[in-house]
């Protein structure tokens, strides 16, 4: 299901002339299937998925990617067995506590999108520490989508806008730019490239507004097996594509 790369010197030269994506978004899918394939409990698949994220963050920072947004926990994931949800929350805290110093050293600032207030108190505290400790880093943003759903974000954005309006007056028309300023991603560029691992071909309620003109790259590779080399493949395909944003071909 992966795109075929254009080979040859001409294709390589064309690719080199085109910019890297400013913002990469990743749906990190396939942890459970990876575990089943290896005869392991699903929770170990999630642990391997966390391990796989670390070199991807490092590679994006090395390449000069401005923003990396990863779909870590969706609003729908609460429907999973309680034990699995608890493991995911524990892995989040473990990742933040162990990796924040290294991320800070790499110049990475940690941000979040989603309704973080619904997460366990200990996870909220870990996120607050990591955001505080990396707040002044400016090389790259690592944007963690937690308790995130695209539809939920749009509803919360409209409610934020409504709350900002004076009481009793006639509401002004809500335009595209104003709504964007009230999204969780306000101040960040929209994703240029969406990567989804495990071969699934859907957005799964991820960044529905922001994905309007993102290039989409699907790979059959399960997330724990996704390496910096796989990331490079996705970026190479992105750089080969003509981006017209609704204009003429």
UniProtKB/TrEMBL annotation:
PROSITE patterns: UPP_SYNTHASE (PS01066). Keywords: Magnesium, Metal-binding, Transferase. Substrate binds at residues 30-34, 42, 46, 74-76, 78, 80, 196, 202-204. Its EC number is 2.5.1.-. The active site is at 29, 77 (proton acceptor). The keyword Nucleotide-binding does not apply. One of its GO terms (cellular component) is cytosol. The keyword Coiled coil does not apply. Mg(2+) binds at residues 29, 215. Its cofactor is Mg(2+). GO terms for biological process: polyprenol biosynthetic process. It is an enzyme of class 2 (transferase). Binds 2 magnesium ions per subunit. InterPro entries: UPP_synth-like (IPR001441), UPP_synth-like_CS (IPR018520), UPP_synth-like_sf (IPR036424). One of its GO terms (molecular function) is magnesium ion binding. CDD domains: Cis_IPPS. Catalyzes the condensation of isopentenyl diphosphate (IPP) with allylic pyrophosphates generating different type of terpenoids. NCBIfam families: PRK14830.1, uppS. Homodimer. Belongs to the UPP synthase family. This is Isoprenyl transferase. It comes from Sulfobacillus benefaciens.
